[in-house]
Specification:
With 124 residues, this protein is mainly beta. 8% of the residues lie in helices and 43% in strands. The strands form two sheets. It has a five-stranded antiparallel beta sheet with strand order 1-2-8-3-6. A three-stranded antiparallel beta sheet has the order 5-4-7, with no helix packed on it.
Length: 124
Amino acid sequence: MKKRALAIGTVGAVRDFDVGVTANRLAEAGGGYEVVHTSPGLEIGVYVLVAPEPDRQTPHAFDEVYVVLEGEAEIEVEGERRRLSRGEAVFVAAGAEHRFSGYETLALLVVFNGPYSASKAAPE
């Protein structure tokens, strides 16, 4: 088997992305969502919320996991509330109503499964 040299971020088997830089850029812009990686069945993004802007999410077509990078907030999923802080994560099932509140600045790593990105419409 032929070996190939892998340079960070340049070959299909490995790709790097700096979520900290992305989170900082989004925070400076007042918040938002940016995809940092997509591959078949997977989307990874950084979502930043900055008060007083509310979380305006709607339910997504695919399961997702939120990992808190910075800050703390409360998430409500289908009426159930949980407090989250740096390093903690929460799973949200596809189609579930959910929203973050009680944050000053909240930076999240978001992992979606499914063949389509969260920012694209799923087929009917």
